[in-house]
Design brief:
Blueprint (H helix, E strand, L loop, with lengths): L7 H13 L4 H15 L10 H12 L2 H16 L12 H27 L11
């Protein structure tokens, strides 16, 4: 089930939280503290400062940040009801932009479906000519 009723930034932060939790609760908190100290990046600002987030993770974790970024992206795409497909040409920011585009399309589709239901018509009840 997708979380289309939530703002995309909130879904992204949930995916990041859940993914960082694979490290354990204490290391997850330490990562957020590190980002706040080194990059002046607060958790709630991550959706608007993805490049800083990616760089901060790389400083903190080195090559392991790539693995964690993939976990974050897989979790994010799962949360929006889509499939993560890896490409050599894309980085974290590109993937998140693509996820947001897909999320917006799903939200628009869901909204139009709700409007149809609210107006009392359903596709099954329509007469085709």
């Amino acid at each position: 089930m997708t979380s289309v009723s939530k703002p995309f930034g909130q879904v992204l932060l949930e995916a990041i939280d859940e993914s960082l939790s694979v490290l354990g609760d204490e290391p997850r908190r330490a990562m957020y503290q590190y980002l706040a100290t080194i990059s002046s990046l607060q958790r709630e600002d991550i959706p608007e400062r993805l490049e800083d987030f990616a760089q901060g993770m790389k400083k903190a974790l080195g090559g392991a940040s790539n693995v964690l970024q993939k976990i974050i992206l897989k979790k994010l795409f799962q949360k929006i009801g889509s499939t993560f497909k890896e490409s050599q040409d894309l980085d974290l920011v590109d993937y998140v932009k693509e996820a947001e585009r897909r999320y917006d399309v799903l939200a628009e589709h869901r909204s139009s479906q709700e409007e149809i239901k609210a107006s009392g018509r359903s596709k099954k009840g329509q007469i085709s000519s």
